[in-house]
Design brief:
By secondary structure, the protein is of the alpha/beta class. It has two domains: about 100 residues, Roll (Urease, subunit C, domain 1); about 325 residues, TIM Barrel, CATH 3.20.20.140. Helices cover about 35% and strands about 20% of the residues. The strands form three sheets. Strands 6, 7, 8, 9, 10, 11, 12, 13 and 14 form a nine-stranded parallel beta sheet that branches. A hairpin with a 2-residue loop joins strand 17 and strand 18. Helix 2 runs parallel beside helix 3 and helix 4 runs parallel beside helix 5. It is globular.
Length: about 475
C-alpha cells in the first residue's frame, strides 16, 4: 500500500524555507520525493503547520532521566561535576532492566515531543547491579531498543569502552562496577545489536574518555573497528580538571593527545570538547571530525563554555545532545548555546554570520546541527530530501511564541521566543508518533515511568 503523501504550506528544504511543499514517503519509510511550489493535491494530507526535519540527539545517557531534577540541592561547601557524578553513580547502581526500559521509554517519548527523531545512546551501563555480567550481555541494550520500538524513535547504540577510574588508576571504582568493558566486549556488543536487524536501530562504538580507557585499549578497539564506517564517540575536555590530569599524565592536553595518537576522520564525534584550545579546534577542523555540545547539561554541571565562534568559523560539524536529560528539546539547546555566548561576550546573535550571508542565528545553528547530527548517528542522508528517512516535525502555528509570526521567521521564533516544545506533530519513518504535542502512547508510557520512579526512590532518598 502506497503511503499517503504529505503537504505543508512551507517546509525546510536545502537549508531554508520553501513554500507549498509536497512530501512523498516510500514504502521503505524514506522520502521518495520532496518538491516545493506544488499546490496541495486532493489526495495529499494537508499538515497543520510548517514542516521541519527532525534533529538527531547526538548524546544521551537514558538512565540519567531517573535523576533529572533530583540533584539540585547542595549540602556541602561546594558542588561541581565531580560531586554530581558521585551521586549519579548511585542511580546507576539502582536501576534494573525493567526500570531502565520504563525510564528510557518516557525519555524517548519526551525527546520526540521535543523535536528529536533519532537518539545516539552513549551506553555504558552494562552489567547487573553487583557488577556481574548478565547471562545475555545485551540485556540492557535490549531494554533501550524496546523503548525505541515502543516510541518509534530511531536509535544509534554506542557501547562504551570503560576500564579504569582515572589516568593513574588502573581499575574501576566499586561504584563503577556496572560499566566494565574491554575492546573485545565492546565490539561484540556492537555486532550483537546489528545482528538483531531491527528497523531504525544501528550501532557504532564509544570510548568513555581518555581517563577511563588506556592508550593500549583504545588502540585495540580502533584496530578492531578498522574501516567500519559507523560513528566513534568520545567524551573529551569537558572539565578543566580532566585537562590538568591529562597534562600531568601525558604531557599534552586531551584533544592534542588524541590528534597526535590517532588519525581522526568524519566518523569521530568529540563530545563536549568544552575546554579546547584554538590550536586544538583548528586541528579537529582539519580532520573532518565533529563536535557534540550539550548546553543544558554543561550549564547544569557548571562545565564551562565552548569556543562556539571558533568552532563555527572553522566549519566543524556540530551537533547537540540531551546528555543528562535535564533538557529534552533541541530548540532550547540552540537557544542556550547562543545565549551563553551572549552573556560572556556581551553581544547578540553570536552564531549569525551576515558576512557569509547567514544573518539568522537559528538557521545557522539548525543547519549545522542538522548535518552534524546525521554524521553523529552514521547517516549519509538526513532531512527533507529523497533517500533520507521520512522524519518530519510540524510546527503548531498557534503555539505561544509562534502565533502571528511571519512565516519567514518561524525558525527564529521557535528557537528564541518559545518556552516549551511547539510541535503539533512528529513523524518518524512516515508514521505520526506525536499528535497534538503528545506522544500517542503517553497514556501507558507515563504510568509505567511513574511506577519505575516510585520503586527507584521508594526509600524517600532523592539526593543520594
Amino acid at each position: 500500500m502506497t503511503p499517503q503523501r504529505l503537504w505543508a504550506p512551507q517546509a525546510w528544504l536545502n537549508g531554508g524555507w520553501q513554500p507549498q511543499v509536497l512530501l512523498s514517503p516510500g514504502a521503505d519509510g524514506h522520502w521518495a520525493q520532496a518538491q516545493a511550489q506544488v499546490p496541495c493535491p486532493s489526495d495529499a494530507l494537508r499538515l497543520p503547520g510548517a514542516a521541519l526535519p527532525g534533529l538527531v540527539n547526538a548524546h544521551s545517557h537514558s538512565f540519567q532521566r531517573a535523576f533529572a531534577g533530583l540533584a539540585e540541592r547542595r549540602a556541602s561547601a561546594t558542588d561541581d561535576f565531580w560531586s554530581w557524578r558521585d551521586r549519579m553513580y548511585g542511580v546507576a547502581l539502582r536501576i534494573g532492566p525493567q526500570a531502565l526500559e520504563a525510564v528510557a521509554t518516557q525519555l524517548y517519548a519526551e525527546l520526540l515531543a521535543g523535536g528529536y527523531t533519532q537518539v545516539c545512546e552513549f551506553h555504558y551501563l552494562q552489567h547487573a547491579p553487583d557488577g556481574q555480567p548478565y547471562a545475555d550481555p545485551l540485556t540492557l541494550a535490549a531494554a533501550l531498543a524496546r523503548a525505541a520500538h515502543t516510541t518509534g524513535i530511531g536509535l544509534t547504540l554506542l557501547p562504551v569502552l570503560y576500564q579504569r577510574a582515572g589516568f593513574r588508576q588502573p581499575s574501576l571504582r566499586d561504584d563503577q562496577r556496572r560499566f566494565a568493558t574491554s575492546p573485545a566486549s565492546v565490539l561484540a556488543l556492537r555486532d550483537g545489536v546489528r545482528a538483531w536487524g531491527l528497523p531504525r536501530v544501528n550501532a557504532g562504538v564509544a570510548i568513555h574518555s581518555l581517563r577511563a580507557a588506556s592508550a593500549e585499549a583504545m588502540a585495540a578497539l580502533l584496530q578492531g573497528v578498522g574501516d567500519d564506517d559507523a560513528p566513534i564517540h568520545l567524551h573529551i575536555a569537558e572539565q578543566t580538571a580532566e585537562v590538568d590530569d591529562c597534562l600531568a599524565a601525558t604531557g599534552q592536553r586531551p584533544i592534542a593527545w588524541l590528534l597526535d595518537q590517532h588519525r581522526l576522520d568524519s566518523r569521530w564525534q568529540l563530545v563536549h570538547a568544552t575546554h579546547a584550545s584554538a590550536a586544538e579546534i583548528d586541528g579537529v577542523a582539519a580532520t573532518g571530525a565533529g563536535v557534540v555540545i550539550a548546553p543544558s547539561t554543561e550549564s547544569n554541571l557548571g562545565d564551562g563554555l565552548p569556543d562556539l565562534p571558533r568552532w563555527l568559523r572553522q566549519r566543524v560539524m556540530l551537533a547537540v545532545g540531551s546528555d543528562s536529560q535535564v533538557g529534552r528539546s533541541w530548540p532550547a539547546e540552540l537557544k542556550l548555546l547562543d545565549y551563553a555566548q551572549r552573556l560572556v561576550l556581551r553581544q547578540r546573535n553570536v552564531a549569525a554570520a551576515p558576512e557569509l550571508g547567514l544573518d539568522s542565528t537559528a538557521a545557522r545553528l539548525f543547519n549545522r546541527c542538522l548535518a552534524g547530527g546525521a554524521a553523529a548517528a552514521g547517516f549519509s542522508r538526513w532531512g527533507l530530501a529523497a533517500g533520507a528517512r521520512a522524519d518530519l516535525l510540524v510546527l503548531d502555528p498557534a503555539a505561544s511564541g509562534l502565533a502571528g509570526v511571519p512565516p519567514a521567521q518561524a525558525l527564529d521564533a521557535l528557537v528564541f521566543a518559545t518556552d516549551a516544545p511547539a510541535f503539533a506533530q512528529v513523524w518518524v519513518a512516515g508514521q505520526c508518533v506525536v499528535d497534538g504535542g503528545r506522544h500517542r502512547q503517553s497514556a501507558t508510557i507515563v504510568p509505567a515511568f511513574e511506577a519505575a520512579m516510585a520503586t527507584l526512590w521508594s526509600d524517600g532518598c532523592t539526593t543520594l
